[in-house]
Design a protein that fits this description.
The complex is a heterodimer of chains A (92) and B (420). Chain A is of the alpha+beta class and 92 residues long. Chain A contains two helices and five strands; from the N terminus they run ββααβββ. With 420 residues, chain B is of the alpha/beta class. Classes of the chains: A alpha+beta (92), B alpha/beta (420).
């Protein structure tokens, strides 16, 4: 198994309605890039043109805000849970 | 009642509109959604006379609040005292100082009764069957009490180790209380997922566009209670940053609708505890966005390291010409005591933060001298007694003998008094 990514309702229309996706990768950014192969619109929506996460989007690895770690470079392992949470706290 | 509310929500960032509902996030850019009013209808209907003809509660400003019908619960919330504070003013070095005292708000003794009253009435209008919140305590008290009045189940999520007074004053209303091992920011993150999964009305998550508007009534009341004369500046505590944002919005609306011309000039100042001051730090750095911090302060009700309205709070402070300062925990305790000893008002730690920050801002010469300064006291000291009890002399214990009293008076006041 890979890394589990939980998709909030506002993004599910970009993931075929799925609440959870699974992908492999050694960082959060790699996992998102992997998901983007199948769900291009999803990847385009959560990141800016320069490859940064959108403002007003918070990402947590096992409940830990990646801004306290290494942002998209934050390492992940198989079985980790990544939550994408929009707009609980704006800005990066 | 009024047809002053549009049944849509609009993204604050990209302007996309969606139908009104328990939703707070723009599906296009993830920006926060905000309510939309029919400004022409408000201009036609709202006058000082209409407002003054109504009972002294927050609902006298109902056209400026986001309900489509009449409120059903929390009908007595708001219109708390605005009192002159000359003795405290002298101690802090502030001319024409006033206290807006939400420590005696109804029913749970904090300004959160205002935001919850709006959110729960809106939850009724949406037909939601349960409400909830992520809270540092005051919000939990308000949601539990007003949900009990509404007859709705309330799911309330708090950090495990909150002050006991705030836990008891939530549980007593029959709330479903869940204590999370973590800090507020963990609780808030969890509640965002809970709101998404369970379809409840989490007042500060998916009802946030409505909830936040309740804070405007603090600003409306201040101006009306000063005789529709806008203050030169207000000082308010910042946790998620919503209150300063909505105070600014209130002053702009009072000006725009002709209720208090010049109110747009009122400057909004913010206060945080140094152990959790992400908004102050971003302001001082000149940043548009807030960097999250891990909170470490006795001001638990302000211990939000990841403030939801951070960027908008920064905007409100800057655009109004205000500023913000952070104060140490020692200064917080001093602030609580100064307010109590000079004005007879016992506030919780957030109020101590506000008083101490006002002293700092005054010493920096940041206040304008051409009108009143108002401190927003948002919570009650009886909820956080342990914050100050260690700093207080809790009374001499003596036998019931007159001579012992005389000796005490002598020691305290000097020989001359005791001899009389």
């Amino acid at each position: 198994m890979g890394v589990i990514v939980r998709i909030p309702t506002v993004l599910r229309r970009l993931t075929g309605g799925r609440e959870e996706l699974e992908a492999s990768g050694s960082t959060v950014g790699e996992v998102f890039a992997e998901l983007g192969k199948e769900h291009q619109e999803f990847l385009a929506r959560i990141t800016t043109e320069s490859g940064q996460l959108r403002p007003f989007l918070n990402v947590f690895v096992n409940g830990e805000d990646i801004r306290f770690a290494q942002e998209l470079e934050t390492p992940v392992r198989d079985g980790d849970e990544v939550s994408i949470i929009p707009s609980i706290a704006g800005g990066r | 009642m009024s047809a002053c509310l549009e049944e849509t929500l609009r993204c604050r960032l990209c302007g996309t509109e969606v139908p009104a509902g328990p939703v707070h996030v723009c599906g296009e850019c993830f920006g926060p959604l905000e309510v939309v009013y029919d400004e022409e209808a408000i201009s036609r209907v709202v006058t000082r006379e209409l407002i003054e003809s109504r009972p002294p509660t927050m609902w006298r400003y109902r056209e400026l609040l986001p309900l489509s019908g009449e409120p059903r619960v929390g009908l007595s919330v708001g219109f708390t005292p605005l009192v002159p504070a000359p003795r405290l003013g002298k101690a802090l070095g502030i001319r024409d100082l006033w206290i807006k005292n939400d420590a005696v708000n109804y029913p749970t003794l904090s300004f959160k009764d205002r935001v919850v009253a709006v959110a729960i009435n809106r939850a009724f209008e949406f037909g939601l069957t349960a409400v909830g919140c992520a809270s540092t305590g005051n919000l939990a008290n308000a949601v539990a009490a007003l949900a009990a009045e509404a007859g709705l189940p309330a799911w309330i999520f708090i950090p495990e180790d909150l002050e006991r007074e705030k836990i008891v004053a939530t549980a007593v209303y029959g709330a479903r209380l869940v204590r999370i091992r973590g800090v507020y920011d963990d609780v808030n993150r969890l509640c965002a997922e809970v709101a998404d999964r369970f379809g409840w009305g989490i007042v500060n998550v998916n009802l946030r566009p409505y909830y936040g508007e309740g804070s405007k009534t603090v600003g409306f009341e201040i101006v009306e209670q000063l005789g529709w004369r806008p203050p030169a500046q207000v000082v308010a505590p910042m946790a998620g940053g919503s209150l300063v944002t909505k105070l600014r919005k209130a002053f702009l609306e009072l000006d725009k609708y002709g209720l208090a011309p010049g109110a747009a000039e009122t400057r909004v100042f913010g206060a945080q505890a140094a152990g959790c001051a992400p908004i102050v730090e971003a302001l001082h750095r000149g940043d548009a966005f807030v960097r999250p911090v891990r909170p470490n302060t006795i001001a638990r009700s302000l211990a939000i390291g990841n403030p939801a309205d951070g960027p908008f709070a920064l905007q409100a402070l800057r655009e109004s010409g205000g500023w913000a300062e952070a104060v140490t925990d020692e200064e917080v305790v001093e602030g609580i005591r100064l307010l109590a000893e000079h004005e007879g008002i016992f506030t919780e730690t957030a109020g101590g933060v506000t008083v101490a920050a006002a002293r700092k801002l005054a010493a920096q010469g940041r206040f304008r001298d051409d009108g009143p300064t108002v401190l927003c006291i948002t919570g009650n000291g009886l909820k956080t007694p342990d914050a100050v009890s260690g700093a207080l002399e809790l009374g001499a214990v003596i036998e019931p003998r007159l001579q012992l009293v005389a000796e005490l008076v002598e020691a305290q006041e000097g020989v001359a008094l005791a001899g009389r």
